[in-house]
């Protein structure tokens, strides 16, 4: 491996001043806009050509070393996490935590190097990708980072009490992780838009190290959470959770201080946020990795107007839904912890009905939006935009999380005959959810690929200024209503977007802040075994939450475009 | 969903005759080659532009519907297969098989429609992707298809004997699958290179239907095989396999004819081929899906010369390795079924040593190849080639299968202290395998992205003809040895390629034809539980086999390029 490591350190000489060729390379994706006519002067520039090409195509093995590193860490991590879950005798959680500490420390060292050395050099970061690191990702990162930090504090407090009879690694790991949280959040906050041009190989490897560290942390957290929940459920499913959370862990080694059990209960509640944090950090790191060595053309930035005066029904209906959702969510959280089974079932009933109402209304409005798309045909944007492709990929991939939960619910409920109103509601929820996510994905992706209305206006005006076109082109333009006042179609689209946006927010809040009907309603737990259903929900739900946040951000963009 | 379905049926008018703009759009990726200087004539052609762009960018939702279909079938299939594995009471294998029969019939109907209607129309298939459906994929498809067909025959023969007391669906499924095998193999043999331009939406949906059907069949086969092997191992690990294969399944319903048990034993041996067949078909269908609506430029096809007279050491060493491997493989297969534990351990010992020798020699020669790459710097090819990207993606993805098996072995052996010579050898094998695959991936990908030597010669001559270049360019050209006789570097590269190619063949043959040291050596079975290790091997190994075949094909291409 050592022999292959030294890649030719391609010297990057992409000053904005030799824009002639750089712009040429990048503007080829924008055929419809004629401002930069490509000029190829044959052999006179051919020496220069090769240089440009070298900068454009880092395919041949430049990303390869970093990819190999990533795969190896991930596979080793996967094997270690699985074996610490399945064979607790030979590989204890301590072994896994030592591995994780090593990864975290290495990642921090690289981040330090990057922030102190690489990013300060001249020509290191010539371009910033405006699309990378959007505000919702950054805000989510900080929010989940803070809650993960809290989790680490609780963990430290808990395991300090076990220091006299348990490994000190159990204290060391949350300490290192807490430091890492600060480091990484700082790093991603300030550098997530960098298109690094210097030390590209080292940076790529560092970024894949960061990526795989986050994914291994994610795997470990998902596994720990699943095992914890399986243990609770396994012991006795009918007795209240509280009692078992208190008893669990007190087998052989007793805690030396009083607050231990409270802390323990608290940090298990915070696990989902840590899982979410790792996902957010992975997504941002992946975008950074894709941007290493990339030359971003400064696109003509169309200013989108954000005005709400024309929309009314959508936001109001959405807000009502959010308020109603919050009320039922609070009721659910209060009643689900009660001992009385009757009350727990009532809480579930309300939660199911509310969710079905929300998701049905969303499906209906998305359908209206799709019909409008059919009526209001528009050009598709033709430029290649890596960030948009990545956005769409992340949207579809994260929706798989909710898909898989819903399909597993669906199969379980149908197979058991859907007896009882709760099972019927559960089934209905699963079906409507699948329909809604399918439609919403279609709506968002279609919306992101349509030519924004103000770009069309600009183009249309350019057409008019340039030459007197034939009548059919005129007709085409007038159809798209250049007038300032938006047509009814655009208004309806905006109403739909605003409504969906708010509905996604409430669908995000409920699972993110602890609604777990998947465990409170025990049909699936009985149907699949404990471990399997826990694994499905613990892997699927964080992606589902990520999906809702991502959908909110994407719907906002669609809103601005229409 | 219905409302969104009708996509605008973009009329494809891409006759080769309007090559002016089509070539322009496609040739933009080939800046270094000056034959087609891009000409943008501003607004005079802009009406035409939009049309070309429309053909180029089917991103905005055209692939979306087919993607949604694919995801839904896959998720439903995944839920059904898992629940039929985990909850045999509510969802029996019969339910799963009815679902599979539905999928298979639907897929066949679409294939029939495609072959009879779509592909016969004018303008339906204007272009063929020369890179798609390479001969090794087709040959593998037919080979594994035949063996899967045999499996289905055995299955039919077995379950006919149970007809009096078991569901007739168990006979119907292999019958339908056997018909499907013929259909699909015929379809992929003749149409895998099509770039379909007509009925694009329907074709996309049909192809994703085919893709997801194959993947669900793959999932079902992997699960069945895992359950079967777990049941065998679970009953009693020390008694010979044969006895248990005979007993298994005879619980409640006895077979009405004598040959039943023989057939049953036979068809379980053939499962891995069916798994492999599904993977091959999936890969080919995916490539076809990517090619729908694609406009392939007729690249200047550089003829690669295949001559072997300059290489000697590589092929001879490789052939020796293949022969030695075959001999030890036969010995292993004979001895591993013996009752005597001593003999079984000896068989394992020989198999492990042989594999370590092969893989170590491969690592060594790959390292030499990598050093030569460092010495013999060359341009990277700059054109975007979707098939090559896909090839590289498939290579890396399929290598994950072997990676994960090796890492799980490694962790298990290290955690158990690697006691006994068999465990030490197993550990060594895992480590060398990881190193070898990493190096080989690097070598192949780097090789595929380097400018082929004869293309360089052609370019160099073009330079010379065009103008008298400055001295530095001359020097650059002479460095790359335009002379007919290949330099020593190229010779060494070819030796390495030839050796690796043959070594990959023997590494393909051994697992493909039934070497399963992962189950014969019981360390990992004890360490992880049965189900888990079975799942890992049954998912990982078919990808590993696919990887070896893919590597052989890729190495052949690298050989021709150097």
In total, the number of domains of chain A comes to: 2
For this entry, what is the oligomeric state of its chains? Answer: homodimer
Q: Encode the helix/strand succession of chain A as letters.
A: HHHHHEHHEHHHHHHHHHHHHH
Q: Numbering strands along the chain, what is their spatial order in the largest sheet of chain A?
A: 1-2
Question: What can be said about the biggest beta sheet of chain A?
Answer: 2 strands, antiparallel
- What class do helices, strands and sheet pairing of chain A give? mainly alpha
Q: Tell me, what's the shape of chain A?
A: globular
Radius of gyration of chain A: 27 Å
Keywords (chains A, B): Cell membrane, Hydrogen ion transport, Ion channel, Ion transport, Membrane, Transmembrane, Transmembrane helix, Transport
Organism (chains A, B): Oreochromis niloticus
Subcellular location (chains A, B): Cell membrane
Transmembrane segments (chains A, B): 63-86, 98-118, 139-159, 171-190, 266-289, 310-332, 352-373, 394-418, 492-513, 525-547
Topology diagram in text:
The structure is a homodimer of 562-residue chains.
Chain A: H1 2-5, H2 19-27, H3 46-56, H4 62-86, H5 93-116, E1 125-128, H6 135-160, H7 169-191, E2 194-196, H8 200-235, H9 241-247, H10 260-291, H11 313-336, H12 341-375, H13 386-415, H14 421-449, H15 453-466, H16 471-479, H17 488-512, H18 517-520, H19 523-527, H20 530-561
Antiparallel strand pairs in A: 1-2
Helix pairs in contact in A: 4-5, 4-8, 5-7, 5-8, 6-7, 6-10, 7-10, 8-10, 8-20, 9-10, 10-20, 11-12, 11-17, 12-14, 12-17, 13-14, 13-20, 14-20, 17-20
